[in-house]
From TrEMBL, chain B:
Source superkingdom: Bacteria
InterPro entries recorded: RibonucZ/Hydroxyglut_hydro
The protein's name in its UniProt record: Uncharacterized protein
Length: 490, 463
């Protein structure tokens, strides 16, 4: 059995003539909103014709870096399409509308596919909320159960899976595939979960041996309670870039480099880091394998992007926050109309926000930056750079309502309130009304600040409230638009 | 400020006219036994005649890789003119026997409390001790913070955990932020010749060496400390700068290799390591000019095969038994004893009250075997079972008879014994093992008389 890396988190597992495709991203970019597609890194082309005989497609969850409609459209409808029990309805409908026969798996019983057995597991409930719908998969050879691969995707390892190993129902896998989605932003750059209250250019989140933390997060602490250390761990993920102002590839996303360094530090486990088009073979004596010429890395562009990153860091460049992802409003009237809609939305979300972790955290606080906190503790600030307007609203814990806030500069807001977000009004409304997804604007036009953990702030709130967990109808709208633009292939 | 590596964890620190020596081991090696010295590597010659005059000496611990009485005496008697003041500064729990030896070498000893400032020339220094979560044998080791005119500072971890108080002091501005931090890598494992240190004769996997142990090491000594400081310093890696005489000890990663790996995994902060004679300029946090009084030695030391039997004092059986019975009581009332008490089965068979065995081996004769009987709290001599013992008893120590006598008499320190001729097997966590107990039981601070003898002997060995 061998696992072929196609890019980001897309894998093709082959054994004999059986071929299973996981989370297919097959284009040079991906994204559910056509205007905001994101480039895959390292850049590569995939000839989807080579996949015309695959037996099964597995979709682990509905995030756009795993679920790409344009890619699915290129695949044979004869392949069986499998999803886990927690997948949302709009995605299932889309798959059916594309012409696939959908199987929804509700248990962990083995599914025979050719010479392979597949089992599907729900992610550990302690996983970050926005990844908690992930279904993980264990694939093993029928004839040799010790040849197994476990793909963990973007979630903590399933407790049910670990129990199956501990209690002897499963042979421990020889290869575990983990995803490295670290986003370490060097000075001058920023990422989706950036804390704008604490991103001084020499802070310990931007400078220093942070790559060790990245590796530890995916290779040691992540695997600490895995019952049997696997012989091999493969790194994937980190495979996309939002190119802004000379900064594209994030540091510590180059899996071959990371695996080389990790192997130097390992006395036992073998760490695998592949480029798209490379494969890892489980058997020690595999015999001749078909060459993978249908995935081609654009080496020139790859080196250019690597050089760009090095230059960005060395020259201490900075990335400007994008003025807006959606086209900005052009007149005051349009702005006022959007602002009214935003105010209505704030009233609608206030209760959920107070029950969400952000609300609970601010309730538990009494002081911030040395001063006693009043009842207003969370800020939403909307801007229009084209018009030079900014309007801010503070959540008042006494009234449970948002109130207009006089302070407007980001710096003063950060100084006074422990949690907040500042973003273009058009992007907020775009997200609220399902014209784009939160993933399209974070790390681009949004600035957020928070205390303590990255899981406590307003971006996680957006991921949950406006993502598929809280608002599947928004996802349905986005999928609908994407499908209308698509020429459905037979 | 200029930090120069003398060898292993010995440092020369200069700022303006002030010059401090830290943990100076100035000869080719250290060790209680003249025939079995631990050699400093890479080998170097320290030309004391050309060394700048010294304002003071600081010791972070009495461990023999840091505290070398022979070096101190040589400085004092042969190069006394280079010592502006003959003062040695030590942490608050420095053992009395070690202090006595330092005075005997011609120095005044100043004992300084944790976190209290002391001044040498134009340098301000402080010891930091973590006080909690430290292995017993490292519980007296202090880290050292040195600053110059409130602007430049360097921190030397030494062989202990970094105290929480240090991070708090730096982040609050109570002490100057260190541009440079020297972090310790003492990761060692057994090579092909058999187990060293606390490693296990039983072929069971040890957590210490599995699951990406090098990455865990770097997380401990490089990543986690860096994340506790608001402003990120430049790191220097030190440690493992010696070899055991028989080459049993293996260093899986050199400091240079680890520094290179860390640098590749770092943004805007390289990680460095120094060889003897190389220097680091603290303020710009960059390598500086090497010094002319330390240079690489032409002859590099290789492992030597064990020499023929030396004449050793052998303790008689009665004396050994008396010593062991004393040990038995301490063993059993500590958590090491609890581990023995809880072990009722081994290899599928019940074990009786005899759970731990001590095998004193002899090259030229039959060894002596003692069993620890937990129901009588004493050691009982029995005929030597040789290789069969490891299959009968869950815990055991095997050590050369002569070396064991030397240990008891203070002619060999326990740490040396672990890396020369002692080995063990156990079915518990490595830090609950029999030799871990011995590391505590024979520790320098526990027995004044034995420690004093050990230090006196080290003055006699060639430096």
């Amino acid at each position: 059995m061998r696992a072929i890396f196609i890019g980001h988190q897309t894998w093709l597992v082959e054994h004999g003539s059986t071929r299973v495709l996981i989370d297919p991203l097959l284009c040079e970019d991906f994204g559910l909103v056509d205007e905001h597609r994101i480039e895959i890194y390292p850049p590569r082309t995939v000839d989807a014709a080579a996949l015309s005989d695959i037996d099964l497609i597995f979709l682990s969850h509905e995030h756009s870096d795993h679920f790409d409609i344009q890619s699915l459209n290129l695949l044979p409808r004869s392949a069986r399409f499998v999803v886990g029990a927690t997948i949302v309805e709009p995605v299932k409908q889309c798959i059916r509308d594309l012409g696939f026969t959908l199987t929804q798996v509700n248990d962990t019983e083995p599914m025979r596919v050719g010479d392979l057995s597949l089992r599907f597991y729900p992610a550990d409930p302690k996983t970050a909320f926005w990844e908690s719908r992930v279904t993980q998969v264990h694939i093993e050879e029928d004839e040799l159960r010790s040849n197994g691969i476990f793909i963990a995707v973007d979630a903590l390892v399933s407790e049910v899976y670990k129990a199956d190993i501990v209690e002897g129902r499963l042979v421990p896998p020889k290869l575990v595939i983990v995803s490295n989605n670290s986003r370490v932003s060097p000075p001058g750059a920023f990422q989706s979960l950036e804390n704008w209250g604490k991103n001084a250019s020499d802070s310990n989140r931007k400078v220093g041996p942070l790559g060790i933390g990245v590796l530890s997060a995916v290779l040691t602490s992540y695997m600490d309670d895995f019952p049997v250390q696997p012989e091999n761990i493969a790194l994937c993920g980190g495979g996309f870039i939002k190119r802004l102002g000379g900064f594209a590839a994030f540091p510590f996303s180059d899996q071959p480099t990371l695996s080389r360094l990790a192997n130097q530090l390992s006395l036992d486990t073998n760490i695998v880091g592949l480029l798209p088009g490379e494969a890892f073979t489980l058997d020690t004596d595999p015999g001749p394998q078909a060459v993978i010429d249908w995935v081609q890395v654009d080496k020139v562009q790859h080196n250019l992007l690597i050089g760009e990153l090095d230059q960005f860091i060395d020259a201490r460049k900075t990335v400007k926050v994008v003025a807006s992802v959606r086209p900005d409003v052009q007149d005051a009237q349009a702005y006022e109309e959007l602002l009214r809609r935003a105010q209505a939305e704030l009233q609608r979300l206030a209760k959920s926000l107070m029950l969400f972790i952000t609300g609970r955290k601010v309730l538990a606080m009494s002081h911030y930056k040395g001063s006693k906190l009043g009842p207003k503790r969370i800020i939403f600030s909307f801007v229009s750079h084209a018009l030079g307007r900014q309007d801010s609203y503070a959540l008042n814990l006494i009234s449970g309502q948002f109130e207009a806030e006089a302070h407007n500069q980001l710096e003063s807001l950060v100084a006074l309130y422990p949690f907040g977000v500042c973003l273009p009004l058009v992007d907020f409304i775009g997200m609220v009304e399902g014209d784009l997804q939160v993933w399209d604007i974070v790390g681009v036009s949004v600035q957020s600040w928070f205390e303590n953990s990255i899981f406590d702030g307003l971006i996680p709130f957006f991921y949950s409230y406006y993502g598929e967990n809280g608002s599947p109808e928004l996802l349905a709208k986005i999928i609908g638009r994407s499908m209308r633009n698509l020429t459905v292939c037979p | 400020m200029k930090l120069t590596m003398i060898g292993h964890e010995s440092w020369s620190l200069q700022a303006g006219d002030s010059h401090v020596l830290i943990d100076p081991v100035l000869g080719s090696g250290f060790g209680s036994d003249a025939d079995r010295q631990f050699a400093i590597v890479p080998a170097r010659d320290v030309d004391l005649q050309r060394m700048p005059a010294v304002d003071g000496i600081v010791l972070t611990t009495e461990h023999l890789q840091h505290f070398h009485p022979a070096s101190l005496r040589r400085l004092s008697s042969d190069y006394g003119h280079l010592l502006k003041r003959k003062v040695v500064y030590v942490p608050e729990l420095f053992p009395g026997a070690a202090e006595a030896i330092v005075r005997a070498c011609g120095y005044e000893v100043r004992r300084v409390d944790t976190q209290a400032e002391f001044v040498i020339g134009s340098l301000s220094l402080r010891f930091y001790m973590p006080c909690t979560e430290v292995l017993f044998w490292d519980s007296r080791v202090a880290s050292l913070h040195v600053e110059h005119q409130g602007r430049e500072a360097v921190f030397i971890q030494s062989d202990t955990r970094i105290a929480d108080a240090y991070f708090a002091d730096v982040n609050s501005g109570a002490v100057a932020w260190p541009q440079v931090m020297v972090m310790t890598n003492n990761f060692q494992c057994s090579g092909t010749q058999g187990p060293i240190g606390l490693d296990n004769l039983l072929p069971v996997p040890d957590q210490r060496y599995t699951r990406l142990s090098g990455l865990r090491l770097l997380d401990e000594i490089v990543h986690k400390p860096m994340r506790r400081l608001n402003q990120v310093p430049t790191l220097l890696l030190a440690g493992n700068g010696y070899r055991d005489p028989f080459g049993k000890m293996h260093h899986p990663w050199s400091n240079l290799e680890l520094a290179q790996i860390c640098s590749e995994l770092s943004l805007l902060r390289a990680v460095y390591s120094l060889t003897p004679g190389e220097s680091f300029d603290v303020a710009p946090a960059r390598p500086g000019e090497p010094v002319d009084w330390i240079c690489a030695s032409d002859e590099q030391v290789g492992p030597c095969p064990p020499k023929g039997r030396r004449h050793t004092i052998s303790l008689d059986t009665q004396r050994i038994k008396a010593h062991l019975d004393e040990m038995a009581r301490t063993w059993l009332i500590t958590r090491y004893g609890q581990v023995l008490m809880a072990q009722s089965n081994y290899l599928g068979r019940p074990v009786g009250p005899c759970r731990a065995v001590l095998q004193l081996t002899r090259d030229d004769g039959v060894g002596q075997q003692w069993l620890l009987d937990v129901s009588r709290v004493e050691f009982v001599e029995v005929p030597d079972e040789c290789e069969r013992a490891i299959k009968r008893y869950p815990y055991g120590i095997r050590v050369d008879h002569g070396d064991f006598c030397k240990l008891v008499l203070g002619e060999l320190q326990i740490w040396e014994l672990l890396n020369l001729s002692a080995s063990q097997w156990y079915v518990c966590d490595r830090y609950d093992s029999p030799l871990a107990f011995w590391l505590e039981y024979y520790n320098e601070q526990v027995d004044y008389g034995r420690a004093l003898r050990s230090y006196e002997l080290s003055l006699v060995t060639p430096s």
